[in-house]
Amino acid sequence: MPLPMIVIGGTSSKMLAQDLAQELGAKFVQASVTRFPDGECYVRIEEETLDDEVIVVQNTHPDSNLIEMLLLQDAAAGLGARKITTVVPYFGYARQDMRFKQGEALSAKVMIDILGLNSQSLVTIDVHKPGILDWFDGETSNVHAAPCIGEFFAGHGVDLVLAPDEGALERAKEVARVIGADFDYLEKTRLSGEVVRMAPKNVDAKDKISLIVDDIISTGGTIEAAANQLKILGAKSVTAVCTHGLFTRNALERLRGCCGAVYSSNTIENEVSVISVAPQIARSLRGQ
Ligand code: R5P
After folding, report:
1. 118 is in which domain, residue-wise?
2. Is 183 helix (H, G, I), strand (E, B) or coil?
3. pLDDT in tens, 229-242
4. What angle do the packed helices 107-115 and 63-78 form, to 10 degrees?
């Protein structure tokens, strides 16, 4: 992929877009985004023309961010951008990747289709099901946050990286490899939207500085159950980290009661999003 020259940041991803521009040695342009009195979104990219390749960085969750993304793409196309690369740090609707019940919408495909109206290339970060990218008519890449998470914790004495369920094991393994720590996983059963049970499992956590790694923290139920299990197993300390920190309701407060510290990447910008995934996105855009 040739190196794009302009990075345009939407309101959800100001810091990440700036970081990415710096990583790529590209020009950063913050789009001007306001709301009309009725709530409709107004977008303007204050440039004369855009005859280069551009990268637009903006989440598609919640719905208001999706509309902003579509308008940003159109504004870039209207200024003459030759190639628009769409970077969606947190891709909304990725979990509805099939019609689970008759009559349901195939939401993930709808999102992919509309993002392709004005874009030739799509980049996601730890998207829930990477297979949905096959619906995009153009280049795609799903970037892993794990190397950036591993680099952030390297040298901080972490002994054990833990996945809260087997499905998250590859991510924990990747983080553990960068840190040089052991890895393992717990066995999770979801009892309700907010309540999760961890099956007793023989994980060697005694006296270990432990790091739980997941893709999403939403209600915090998963991490809370994993942290409690690690304490039962005698862990010395428990820290939690995720790619996408949704932190719904009082999730951060809830987690601060059971973890020494909580961090997330900056795919969703919040008070603990201290790990930038820009280096990994830049590597992917450079084709490395
Ligand atoms: C589930 O498949 C995901 O990997 C996360 O474990 C889940 O979304 C976390 O949700 P919560 O924080 O509400 O337990």
Report:
1. 6-144+277-286
2. strand
3. 999 999 999 999 99
4. 20
173 within 8 A of 164, measured Cβ to Cβ: no
Q: How far is the CA of 205 from the centre of ligand 1 (A)?
A: 22
Mutate which of 129, 196, 213, 217 for ligand 1? The one with the most ligand atoms within 8 Å of its CB, which is 217
pLDDT band per the 50, 70, 90 thresholds, residue 202: confident
- Separation between Cα atoms, residue 110 and residue 159, nearest integer Å: 43
Same domain (yes/no): 206, 114: no
Same domain, 14 and 119: yes
Q: What is the DSSP letter of 152?
A: H
Residues 123 and 181 in one domain: no
- Strands (DSSP E) along 11-138, which ranges? 27-30, 32-35, 41-44, 53-57, 83-88, 121-125
- Asked if residue 214 belongs to a domain, the reply is yes
Which of 123, 135, 64 lies closest to 96 in space, CA to CA?
Answer: 135
Ligand 1: residues whose CB is within 6 Å? Answer: 164, 168, 196, 214-222
Q: How many CB atoms lie within 10 A of CB 255?
A: 23
Same domain for 34 and 126, yes or no, is yes
- Note whether residue 217 is domain-resident: yes
Catalytic residue, candidates 27, 188, 208, 231: 188
Is the per-residue pLDDT at 2 higher than 60? Answer: no
pTM of the shown model: 0.93
What's the pLDDT at 21? Answer: 97
The answer on 281 and 260 residing in a single domain is: no
Q: Which two tokens stand for residue 288?
A: 């490395």
Question: Do 99 and 70 share a structural domain?
Answer: yes
Spatial contact of 50 and 21, defined as CB atoms under 8 Å apart: no
Residue 188 designated active-site: yes
How much distance in Å is there from the Cα of 31 to the middle of ligand 1?
A: 32
Residue 107: CATH number of its domain: 3.40.50.2020
